[in-house]
Amino acid sequence: MITLENVSKTYNIGTAGLLDITLKIEKGEFAFVVGPTGSGKTTLFRLLIREMLPTKGSIIVGNLDLVKLPHKKVPHLRKKIGVVFQDLKLLLDRTIFENTILPLDVAGVSFLQAKKRVEEVLAQVGIEEQKEKFPIQLSGGELQRVAIARALVLAPEILLADEPTGNLDPKTSSDIIKLLVEINQKGTTVVMATHNVDVVNTLGKRVIGLEKGKLVRDQKKGKYAVS
Amino acid sequence: MRFLKTAWHHIKRSPYRAFAIVFILMQTFFVISLFTFLVAGSVKIIAYFESLPPVTAFFVNDAKQEDIDGLKEQLLATGKISEIRHVSKEEALKIYQEQNKDDPLLLEFVTADILPSSFEISAKQIEDLAEISSMIKGSAIVKEVVYQKEVVSKLQSWTDALRKIGIAMTTVLLFDSIFLMIILIGIKIAQKKDEIEIVKLLGATNWYVRWPFIFEGMFYGIVGAILGWLFSIALLWYSTPFLQSFLGAIPIFPISPLFIVSVLGAEILLAIVLGVFSSLLAVLRYLK
Questions:
Q1: Contact A78/B203, CB-based, under 8 Å?
Q2: A8-17, A113-122, A156-165, B259-268: range with lowest mean pLDDT
Q3: Looking at this predicted complex, what is its ipTM?
Q4: Inter-chain contact A103–B208, Cβ cutoff 8 Å?
Q5: Counting beta carbons within 10 angstroms of the beta carbon of residue A63, is it exposed (0 to 12), middle (13 to 18) or buried (19 or more)?
Q6: Cβ distance B72 to B86 under 8 Å?
Q7: Is some CB atom of chain B closer than 8 A to the CB atom of A212?
Q8: What is the C-alpha R_g of chain B?
Q9: Cβ neighbours of residue B120 under 8 Å, at least 6 residues apart?
Q10: CA of B23, closest CA in chain A: separation in Å?
Q11: Alpha-carbon distance A79 to nearest alpha carbon in chain B (angstroms)
Q12: Are strands A214-219 and A206-211 parallel, antiparallel or unpaired?
């Protein structure tokens, strides 16, 4: 599903984002990407949605070679990957319903079909009652759910979640994780970047460890810290 | 449809900016409409004068019939006259009454005595008109000679000047409108930078982002054109009674409704081109 071979990303100012990363994530997998701030987790996600190109190496997502992907095909790639951004990237002047329908609108789905799908997804993440509210009226946990709903609305093959439990209380974090696990059980490949030790240790899923841009470990059923 | 909805959303969010653009476009299309009507009116006035006999000679009040007949023979003897018609004082009164039939006050004190009789003269060759005209001017019984060619050429030069002023003013206003639209749509794009970045991350193509701005430009153009046209029609309607009495027998009114609607149609087309062009320049400049 996702293959990175000898991928390095160096920013213009000379800072290394990723260094010689090679890894493969299979279809239907649930993988945590862990590591301290600045270890390259977000860089990895940005490369996977072709927000930027690697300095060297190759990245394959599905059947798309992201390095060779023409610019006009980038929207096609982004419709296949749902992303829960670290800063959520919700539009503050639009309601929850309008935020969630956006990917469907972008994909050209008719309004009636889109409306039906949005209602399904909002029910799935448990915030259907809040659909007419604006982001500013919601709690942190609810906003995370909106971001997840928006990422799921196009039924993507891959869901990238960049620290979706950051700044949330343990109970809300646990709810969000349960939701992501459910989504994964329905067949979506989930890659989640996190600092949350408890979540990683409890779930016992694959753990990809990054440090200063390097891949330092890749364990099938890993823990947050190496014992 | 979704692009139209987004464009409407943009407009509603910044009503003052929308008003500024529509206002300048309204002025542009007001000037365009006004000069179109003026030039079309001038063309009709020229056509009217061209339809009149080339030379009209008005006689002094006490001109005797034998002197008039003598002048006629003298003119026919040149062999250059194709037609000569004597309009008597009574005929002149009939023409005057016909022209002013709707204004009894103008008819009340006018009798045949105060109206001059005249000759309406056409030449076989148009270049002979000047010679005939100067020959008549030399006669003692002729008070005034109206040489239509002079009137027509004077009117033509006025119409040309009017057209040039119209084109110059329209060009300046069109440039103003284009620059204002580019700047204001550009500011709007800059303000929506974050939103544009988000929709692009969600898979939006460049055109998904561009279309609402293009529709927005079209909307401003169309509304500006309709308002400018409406104001010019209102001005025309308001000044019709004055123009009618000023122009007298010259048949300009009523203006054909088809012509008025055609002007609106052409202006809407121009407005769409203008709106699309300006917003396209803005999106290509600010949305790379």
A1: yes
A2: A8-17
A3: 0.87
A4: no
A5: exposed
A6: yes
A7: no
A8: 29
A9: B53, B55, B56, B83, B84, B85, B87
A10: 28
A11: 5
A12: antiparallel
